[in-house]
Amino acid sequence: MSSIFDSSNIEITPEQAQAALAEDKAQLIDVREPYEWEAGRIDGALHIELEHLASNAGKIDTDRPVIFQCRLGSRSAMAAQAFRGVGIDAYSMAGGLRRWADEDRPLVPEGGHVADH
């Protein structure tokens, strides 16, 4: 199964992520802490904290690309690397939720924001 993204690059842009999510061609996993998730998030994301990712891997649909996202991109890059290491088509959203919000992409709940880390 070929990816909708360039598999030679582990990072994708928020624009690419938003387009893939709109067409239900990828799954978004938010690996941030609970307080960060509560402050604001991307609608439709699945919340699995980075430290609980391995024990919750079964909740992730690996039949389509997986996009990991955090606040700035470092935690999501670690997650994407780990999943790629076991052969899963995984990516990190470059710039994280901060870049998503800076590009005026929507957050939920109403009035959602990017929490400080």
What does this protein structure show overall?
With 117 residues, the protein is an alpha/beta fold. The chain is built from four helices and five strands; from the N terminus they run βαβαββαβα. It has helices at residues 14-22, 34-39, 74-85, 96-102, and strands at residues 11-12, 27-30, 46-47, 66-69, 90-93. Strands 1-5-4-2-3 form a five-stranded parallel β-sheet. The chain starts with 10 loop residues before the first strand and ends in a 15-residue tail after the last helix.
What's a concise summary of this model?
With 117 residues, the chain is α/β, with parallel strands linked by helices.
Number of helices: 4
CATH level-4 homologous superfamily: Rhodanese-like domain
Note the gap between the termini.
Answer: 37 Å
Number of domains: 1
Query: What structural category characterises the helix and strand content?
Result: alpha/beta
Mean pLDDT: 96
CA-based shape: globular
Q: Any idea of the CATH topology?
A: Oxidized Rhodanese, domain 1
Low-pLDDT segments, ≥5 res: none
Largest sheet, in brief, is: 5 strands, parallel
Output the strand order for the largest sheet. Answer: 1-5-4-2-3
Fraction in helix: 25-40%
